[in-house]
Amino acid sequence: MSYVSFTGARSLLTTALVAGLFTMAGATQSAIASPEFSGEAVSSFGAPGPDGSVSGPNDNVLTISKGWGWNKITLTSEDFNDVATGEAFKIAKLIHQDYSLAWGSYNAPVSTEFSFSDPDGLGNQTLEFDLDVSLYVLADWTELNLNSNSATTFTHDNVEYELALLGFSNDGGESFYDGFKTWKTQTQKHKLYAEINPTSVVVPLPAAAWGGMALFGLLGAAHRFRQRRLASL
Predict the structure, then answer these.
(1) With pLDDT > 70 as the criterion, what percentage of the chain qualifies?
(2) Which of 23, 30, 38, 201: disulfide with 118, CB 3.0–4.6 Å?
(3) For residues 125 and 163, is the Cβ–Cβ distance under 8 A?
(4) What is the pLDDT of residues 55-82, one digit of tens each?
(5) Which helix H or strand E contains 212, and what residues bound it?
(6) What pTM, to 2 d.p., does this model score?
(7) What is the b/e burial string over 84-112, where b = at least 16 CB atoms within 10 angstroms of the residue's CB?
(8) Which of 120, 122, 118 lies closest to 152, judged by CA?
(9) HSE-up of 102 (CA within 13 Å, CB side)?
(10) Where are any strands of DSSP class E within 102-219?
(11) At a CB cut-off of 8 Å and minimum separation 6, what does 20 contact?
């Protein structure tokens, strides 16, 4: 009669248990498919400085009245649909009109709220960043620059994601830049992009795995008890 020793049986069980755990973890990860994101991004300016005023339906128009004339910056709202992870998507169009003869610098706080319609239950997320406006008289232009990298994290289906600002782009999100110049009496239009990427995956351990681990612990305890009995003979 052929038989398998206790040590051999335990070794086989260990191999099977470890393989089963990896299989279940892999199946769980496969079940958590990368979602596609849809919704609306609405940008607004924060409290204006002493030379600025905010207007528009969502406080999305900033007017800087400094020196002679004015600078006007408008941020549009944008819909995004079926955005995959790792895909750059447009969150706003910035329109800058420079009709001023002034100098100095201005810091414009911006808040972009993302209202997700898909996946269900994701809710709203917010990116906050600053836009620096530098007014030059002798150079005959105004310069706008993003002065902070903005990102926020959220969790969906046990996966943590990062929503991050990428910068300006005018080639559909192929390349990005942090700022631009607008000449006097000119209008510039630039698009802002963001990206969503997974940062970590929390894989819940199935109940069957806990049962297998408990069985393995009992076998280990039985083996130790058998070794003590043999040692006492």
Answers:
(1) 72
(2) 38
(3) yes
(4) 888 899 999 887 788 889 999 999 999 9
(5) helix 207-232
(6) 0.73
(7) eeeebbbbbebebbbebebeeebebbbbb
(8) 122
(9) 20
(10) 104-118, 124-136, 141-146, 151-156, 159-169, 179-183, 187-201
(11) 208, 209, 212
Judge whether 40 and 79 are in contact, CB under 8 Å.
Answer: yes
Q: Which residues pair with 22 in a beta bridge?
A: none
Distance of alpha carbon 187 from alpha carbon 97, whole angstroms: 4
Distances (CA, A) of 35 to 85, 131, 132, 199: 8, 31, 35, 14
Which residue do the tokens 């528009």 mark? 56
Q: Which amino acid is at 192?
A: L
Q: Closest Cα to residue 65, out of 76, 57, 77, 73? A: 73
Distance CA 113, CA 110 (A): 10
Q: Residue written as tokens 């007014």?
A: 135
Task: Find tokens 């903005």 and name the residue.
Answer: 150
Find the length of the chain: 233
Could you give the 3-state DSSP secondary structure of residue 231? helix
Q: For residues 214 and 100, give the distance between their C-alpha atoms in angstroms, rounded to a whole number.
A: 75
